[in-house]
From TrEMBL:
Pfam families: ABC_tran (PF00005), oligo_HPY (PF08352)
Keywords recorded for this protein, A-Z: ATP-binding, Nucleotide-binding, Transport
Superkingdom in the source lineage: Bacteria
InterPro entries on file: AAA+_ATPase, ABC_transp_ATP-bind, ABC_transporter-like_ATP-bd, ABC_transporter-like_CS, Oligopep_ABC_C, P-loop_NTPase
Key word Hydrolase present: no
Natural source organism: Streptomyces alanosinicus
Similarity comment: Belongs to the ABC transporter superfamily.
Record-level Gene Ontology MF annotations: ATP binding; ATP hydrolysis activity
Listed GO biological process terms: peptide transport; transmembrane transport
Domain ABC transporter stretches: 8-259
Protein name (database record): Dipeptide/oligopeptide/nickel ABC transporter ATP-binding protein
Length: 347
């Protein structure tokens, strides 16, 4: 892992959405702590998977990196340039280098535009004229993503969901990006075609050397795609590691719980008991003190309630494998109970 000169360097990244209330004068009465102090890097051409349950802040993170959202705190450095609060002008030179692919291929394509118009849109906006013209480039892109290049005059509704996501990929590739943030790019698709689209993204990543931040709900999808994986819980990264280390030696109880839901990912030879976490994720408006996972953790102690664990290389971790837990799991940790304890009892 080359952390000396990462493509993207994120430190202490925070996004709190203010909650307004009161009458007649509306004022800020609280905040949704959607993302709360993230540190991670993405090397050139690398794929980082970002995994966690609904509401843990994955999309917010993606939108912060692509600067669709303004961070509340922390720092985002892209190719050595601080872009944390860069405005339109500051972002202009790199706008084309960072692209996003969205979850819903239906909502993210304009139904009134032809595929050619959609894919060439970014070239038009950025006034880019490729050799041989934009139409030629559109045909090339359609071919790269596995669509018929002659179909550039068709409209999105003439394509299936999987094909539409391919159009989204072609559009993201139009400006030859260096980094693509893919926010659950296959979760809206039929299971039968998810693998095809993941394969396409993998081809794009490898052959074109594009770095990815691949956002997903579970560890199954990023397993074959991302060389490195970060697990998020309630606005924080609880564990980050190279793929082999994360799947083979998960140290955070939450990572273990998530992994137990992936059938083929066994830590040891014995088939593992599925860990079902009790209760829901607590509200990010009023997250638990100390370790945010403690209300659902079967190992929580008093210390977990008072001291927030920091993301560090705990004993037994390889370099680059960081875990935020006071009592990290080990290979011979007694298998977790089938049902974690009642969240009310720990709160
Ligand atoms: N614009 C907003 N204003 C207020 N709260 C927001 C806003 N956007 C997101 N949130 C809140 O921030 C938290 C994180 O949301 P986010 O969409 O980043 O989660 P996610 O991990 O992408 O979830 P999912 O898996 O459901 O897509 C949630 O509690 C969400 O309700
Ligand atoms: S710090 Fe405590 S509550 Fe948090 S994951 Fe570790 S053992 Fe569980
Ligand atoms: Mg999301």
């Amino acid at each position: 892992m080359s952390n000396t000169n990462p493509l993207l360097d994120v430190s202490g990244l925070t996004k709190h959405f203010p909650i307004k209330g009161g009458f007649p004068i509306r004022r800020t009465v609280g905040a949704v702590q959607a993302v709360d102090g993230l540190d991670f890097q993405v090397a050139e051409g690398e794929s980082l998977g970002l995994v966690g349950e609904s509401g843990c802040g994955k999309s917010t993170t993606g939108r912060l990196i692509t600067r669709l959202l303004e961070p509340t705190g922390g720092k985002i450095t892209y190719r050595g340039q601080d872009i944390t609060h860069a405005g339109r002008k500051g972002l202009a030179p790199i706008r084309s280098e960072i692209q996003m692919i969205f979850q819903d291929p239906y909502a993210s394509l304009n139904p009134r535009q032809t595929v050619g118009k959609i894919i060439s849109g970014p070239m038009e906006i950025n006034d880019i004229n490729p050799e041989g013209g934009r139409e030629k480039r559109v045909r090339e892109l359609l071919e790269i993503v596995g669509l018929n290049p002659e179909h550039f005059n068709r409209f999105p509704h003439e394509f299936s969901g999987g094909q539409r996501q391919r159009i989204g990929v072609a559009r993201a590739l139009a400006l030859e990006p260096k980094l693509i943030v893919a926010d659950e790019p296959v979760s809206a698709l039929d299971v039968s075609i998810q693998a095809q689209v993941v394969n396409l993204l993998q081809k794009v990543q490898r052959e074109l050397g594009i770095a990815f931040v691949f956002i997903a709900h579970d560890l199954a999808i990023v397993r074959h795609f991302s060389q490195r994986v970060a697990v998020m819980y309630l606005g924080k990264i609880v564990e980050i590691a190279d793929r082999e280390d994360l799947y083979g030696n998960p140290r955070h109880p939450y990572t273990r719980a998530l992994l137990s839901a992936v059938p083929e990912a066994t830590v040891d030879a014995e088939p593992r008991e599925r860990i079902r976490l009790a209760g829901d994720v607590p509200s990010p408006i009023n997250p638990p003190t100390g370790c945010r996972f403690r209300t659902r953790c079967w190992k929580a102690t008093e210390k977990c309630a008072t001291e927030a664990p920091t993301l560090v290389q705990v004993e037994g971790n390889k370099p680059g494998h960081l875990t935020a837990c006071h009592y990290p799991e080990t290979a011979d940790t007694v298998p977790a109970p089938r049902l974690a304890k009642d969240p009310e009892a720990a709160a």
